[in-house]
Write a structure and sequence with these properties.
- The complex is a heterodimer of chains A (146) and B (106).
- The radius of gyration of chain A is 26 Å and the shape is rod-shaped.
- By secondary structure, chain A is mainly α.
- Chain A contains 5 helices and no strands.
- Chain A has 2 domains: 59 residues; 81 residues, no CATH class.
- By secondary structure, chain B is mainly α.
- Chain B has a single domain, classed as Winged helix-like DNA-binding domain superfamily/Winged helix DNA-binding domain (Arc Repressor Mutant, subunit A), CATH 1.10.10.10.
- Helices cover 57% and strands 11% of the residues of chain B.
- Chain B contains 5 helices and 3 strands; from the N terminus they run αβααββαα.
- In chain B, helix 1 crosses helix 4.
- The longest helix of chain B is centred in the C-terminal third of the chain and has 23 residues.
- Chain B is elongated.
- The N and C termini of chain B lie far apart (38 Å).
- The model of chain B has no long low-confidence stretch (mean pLDDT 86).
- Classes of the chains: A mainly alpha (146), B mainly alpha (106).
- The interface between A and B is medium-sized, with 19 and 18 residues.
């Protein structure tokens, strides 16, 4: 029968590995296999605790990085749409007054919000980036131009 | 960008350089370098992320559960040779002291 400390170590690592995905799961499985050859019971527990900590930290960092990349790319996309509308309509078409406002402010905001709604289900963090930029842009317009 | 080179990373690289063609197990690396799993695995992961280390599962024909094995890739070997040499040189310089190495002051 497996001693108590070794069983605890194995359970701990198994719980962590089960919630991992992709390559990180492979690393977790590797640590779990090594647990069978760790000689002392205390060493096995220390091995499992250290491994679990590494795996959880890596998973968290990967998750944060993925979310930040999504939000930033959404914001960059929105900035591109707004810049295109501002540069295109005011310079090429030389619009004035209400038409200019619609073309340079309302149109890009509508496009960005529509984009956010469209990709909300599949790319939530990109959508969040789009909405964040739209909100900032609208606030900027209200504060400085209205 | 190459991975951050710590003393522990150099210890791991030196161990891989002892027999570059041989696959090594995680626990054996841990025992021989004295590194705990919480220190060893981030090093292995970083090296693998930079494609300096290759990993594979042991063939499961021994009747025991397969284990993960590691060895340096050709790029990893080059990196290990250069970085351990640089590390040794820097350590020697620190041991001798900057004043001794500076011809203007000697």
């Amino acid at each position: 029968m497996m001693p108590r400390r070794r069983r605890l170590a194995s359970t701990l690592l198994r719980i962590v590995v089960r919630r991992l995905s992709g390559a990180d799961r492979g690393w977790g499985e590797a640590m779990l296999r090594e647990l069978d050859v760790v000689e002392s019971e205390w060493d096995a527990l220390r091995w499992a605790v250290g491994g679990a900590f590494v795996l959880l930290r890596r998973e968290t960092l990967t998750d944060v990085r993925r979310r930040a990349t999504g939000v930033l790319s959404g914001m960059a996309l929105a900035a591109g749409v707004v810049a295109l509308c501002l540069a295109g309509f005011s310079r090429l078409l030389a619009l004035r007054g209400g038409t200019a406002f619609l073309a340079e402010i309302a149109l890009p905001v509508a496009v960005v919000i529509a984009g956010a709604v469209a990709c909300w289900r599949r790319r939530r963090f990109v959508a969040a980036g789009l909405l964040l930029f739209a909100t900032t842009f609208i606030t900027h317009v209200i504060v400085y131009y209205l | 960008m190459p991975p951050r080179l710590t003393r522990q990373t150099v210890d791991v690289l030196e161990l891989f350089l002892e027999s570059p063609a041989e696959w090594k197990y995680g626990y054996d690396l841990s025992r021989r370098t004295g590194l705990k799993s919480g220190t060893l695995y981030p090093i292995l992961m970083r090296l693998a992320d930079h494609e300096l280390l290759e990993a594979c599962w042991e063939p499961g024909d021994t009747g025991k559960p397969p284990r993960h094995m590691y060895r340096l890739t050709p790029a990893g070997l080059r990196y290990a040779r250069v970085s351990t040499r640089d590390h040794l040189r820097a350590r020697a310089q620190r041991a001798v002291g900057p004043a001794t190495l500076d011809p203007a002051t000697s």
